Amino acid sequence: MNIASHGLHGLYALTDSGLTAGRPLSDAVAAAIRGGTRLVQYRDKSADHARRTREAQVLLAVCREYEVPFIVNDDVALAGEIGADGVHLGREDAALEEARVQLGPRALIGVSCYASLERAIAAEHAGADYVAFGSFFASPSKPQAVHAPQSLLTEARQRLNVPICAIGGITPANGAELLTAGADMLAVISGLFAQTDIEAAARCYARLFQ
């Protein structure tokens, strides 16, 4: 585990270029950071590697300017190629141990654990820097996602030493209860990037951590 992972706390922005209505994704990410985002994940499931590489490089530069860690979703090779701060791995992605070998000991590696505390415990033992649970609420980004009960966060807080991220339909209205239950970070997609004023939306989430 990277010792820097203990500082992971706050709003975690997950990008979706399809939500920004023609606005450059770099501008949208910068607005989210100005509003209080503490961690950014580049999330793009397309097969256009050249475009994804260009886009990730631009977003990495934005995050460097604001001194916010930049994580790539799923793609260990892309994270290594552009020098991202880390990668986030799902069930179908590369093994955590393999990602650690490729990206090195300083990389931040997060793992999606859905509604499984056992998967989270295994991820921590394998060297994950943070784990993510969800979906806690209905999510427009993943409407078929498995539901995770809030009690899972409380149990995870008692069993784990790594930071815990909650994801799935999180709004400024329901986010506080997830933090009370045990989450350190709130991961948000449409609650940020589908909003007209992204910076203001981010501020609403950031206030939950104050």
Give the termini distance in whole angstroms: 27 Å
In terms of per-residue confidence, which ranges show pLDDT below 50 for 5 or more consecutive residues?
Answer: none
Helix content: 25-40%
Rg (C-alpha, Å): 16 Å
- The global form is globular
The name CATH uses for the topology is TIM Barrel
Description:
The chain has helices spanning 25-34, 49-66, 76-82, 96-103, 117-126, 151-159, 175-181, 190-193, 198-206; strands at residues 10-14, 37-42, 70-73, 86-89, 108-114, 130-133, 164-167, 185-188. It is of the alpha/beta class and 210 residues long. The chain has a single domain (3-209), classed as TIM Barrel. An 8-stranded parallel barrel has the order 1-2-3-4-5-6-7-8, surrounded by 8 helices. Strand 5, helix 5 (117-126) and strand 6 form a beta-alpha-beta unit. The longest helix has 18 residues, at 49-66. The mean pLDDT is 94.
Notable characteristics:
TIM Barrel; alpha/beta; 210 residues; 9 helices; 8-stranded parallel β-barrel
Helix/strand layout:
Layout: E1 10-14, H1 25-34, E2 37-42, H2 49-66, E3 70-73, H3 76-82, E4 86-89, H4 96-103, E5 108-114, H5 117-126, E6 130-133, H6 151-159, E7 164-167, H7 175-181, E8 185-188, H8 190-193, H9 198-206
Parallel strand pairs: 1-2, 1-8, 2-3, 3-4, 4-5, 5-6, 6-7, 7-8
Helix pairs in contact: 1-2, 1-9
Give a short summary of the structure.
With 210 residues, the chain is an alpha/beta fold.
